[in-house]
């Protein structure tokens, strides 16, 4: 627990004896208990960028986890995209438009989430067959796909 200063306010736990100076190597503690604003937290910034990309996916279109991450400025962070979606509590987020890179739904086949994602995609006119989108768009950044096509 943080110590109290002589004026009654809470001292920073890294503060040496309430002097206002922290010991070397001690990070500044947040004593408010509130989460840091996204502007101060790189993880929160990354999360917000990923969510913004997902919100921008048009109805009837899909993207892969890696494509979302790349568009958010986080290339190679497909798993972070999956983690952000797994922690999502926004019922209006179009999470169902995000798939594996091969066009498959990432949830176990036949599960409640798998069925819901299939239903939502079909309601938007996306052709889904056995848990896979029939025509998964290729990333414009994927040179091999642009030159050689699917496969």
From TrEMBL:
<dbReference type="InterPro" id="IPR036388">
    <property type="entry name" value="WH-like_DNA-bd_sf"/>
</dbReference>
<feature type="region of interest" description="Disordered">
    <location>
        <begin position="1"/>
        <end position="46"/>
    </location>
</feature>
<dbReference type="GO" id="GO:0008168">
    <property type="term" value="F:methyltransferase activity"/>
</dbReference>
<dbReference type="InterPro" id="IPR052520">
    <property type="entry name" value="ATL_DNA_repair"/>
</dbReference>
<keyword id="KW-0808">Transferase</keyword>
<dbReference type="GO" id="GO:0032259">
    <property type="term" value="P:methylation"/>
</dbReference>
<feature type="compositionally biased region" description="Low complexity">
    <location>
        <begin position="20"/>
        <end position="30"/>
    </location>
</feature>
<protein>
    <submittedName>
        <fullName>Methylated-DNA--protein-cysteine methyltransferase</fullName>
    </submittedName>
</protein>
<keyword id="KW-0227">DNA damage</keyword>
<dbReference type="InterPro" id="IPR014048">
    <property type="entry name" value="MethylDNA_cys_MeTrfase_DNA-bd"/>
</dbReference>
<feature type="domain" description="Methylated-DNA-[protein]-cysteine S-methyltransferase DNA binding">
    <location>
        <begin position="47"/>
        <end position="126"/>
    </location>
</feature>
<dbReference type="GO" id="GO:0006281">
    <property type="term" value="P:DNA repair"/>
</dbReference>
<keyword id="KW-0489">Methyltransferase</keyword>
<dbReference type="InterPro" id="IPR036217">
    <property type="entry name" value="MethylDNA_cys_MeTrfase_DNAb"/>
</dbReference>
<dbReference type="Pfam" id="PF01035">
    <property type="entry name" value="DNA_binding_1"/>
</dbReference>
């Amino acid at each position: 627990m943080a110590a109290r200063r002589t004026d009654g306010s809470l001292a920073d736990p890294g503060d040496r004896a309430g002097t206002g100076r922290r010991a070397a190597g001690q990070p500044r503690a947040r004593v408010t208990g509130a989460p840091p604003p996204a502007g101060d937290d790189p993880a929160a910034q990354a999360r917000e960028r990923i969510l913004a990309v997902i919100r921008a996916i048009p109805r009837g279109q899909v993207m892969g986890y890696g494509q979302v991450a790349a568009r958010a400025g986080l290339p190679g962070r497909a798993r972070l995209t999956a983690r952000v979606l797994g922690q999502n509590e926004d019922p209006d987020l179009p999470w169902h438009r995000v798939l594996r890179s091969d066009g498959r739904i990432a949830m176990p086949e036949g599960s409640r989430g798998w069925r819901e994602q299939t239903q939502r995609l079909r309601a938007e006119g996306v052709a889904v067959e056995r848990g896979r989108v029939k025509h998964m768009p290729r990333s414009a950044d994927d040179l091999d796909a642009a030159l050689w096509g699917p496969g």
